[in-house]
Design brief:
Elements: H1 5-16, H2 18-24, E1 28-29, H3 32-50, H4 54-59, E2 61-68, E3 74-76, H5 77-90, E4 97-109, E5 112-122, E6 135-146, E7 149-160
Parallel strand pairs: 2-7
Antiparallel strand pairs: 1-4, 2-3, 4-5, 5-6, 6-7
Length: 164
């Protein structure tokens, strides 16, 4: 599936201006059917992550999908995304488990949606192999539908500081 360059540019713009867009646009919150459909890409990502399947993670993205990690690492396209995850699954995330709870889905167009979720990761380690306590944060994803299947177009995650 190749999502058009125009769609990718629009998705990147919407993600960067999401607070303004959501406050002033006429978009609508997704109904339960739309939410279930759009969330399939997030579910595919989480399932592949928990299998430590770099190829499966990459396949949850559009061909030209964009990924930004909590560390600011970026990858564009499935090949780069797969390479990134192959590396972290061989290292600091080799025993990690991830969950995500979708907080909201907002339909931007009939084939483009913004998904906000809360995530948690256990089993991650530092680059030196020291176990990291529970990590949690917020995930903002733009998903696109093409020929009946939803995939991740833009993926940005933010790690929140743990309560002391």
């Amino acid at each position: 599936m190749l999502v058009s360059s125009v769609t990718r540019v629009v998705a990147s713009f919407l993600l960067s201006s999401l607070p303004f867009v959501m406050a002033f646009s006429q978009q609508h919150p997704a109904n339960s059917s739309e939410s279930a459909s759009t969330e399939q890409a997030i579910t595919a990502f989480i399932d592949a992550f928990n299998r430590h399947d770099a190829r499966g993670v990459a396949m949850s993205f559009a061909d030209d999908g964009e990924f930004t990690s909590v560390r600011g690492d970026t990858a564009r396209g499935r090949k780069e995304i797969e390479a990134f995850y192959a590396g972290v699954f061989a290292g600091r995330l080799k025993n990690a488990r991830r969950t995500a709870t979708v907080a909201s889905v907002r339909m931007l167009t009939p084939t483009l949606a913004s998904v906000e979720a809360k995530w948690e990761i256990t089993g991650a380690t530092t680059d030196q192999g020291v176990l990291i306590p529970l990590r949690h944060g917020i995930l903002t994803v733009i998903v696109a539908e093409d020929t009946g299947a939803w995939s991740i177009l833009v993926f940005h995650e933010l790690e929140l500081a743990s309560a002391q």
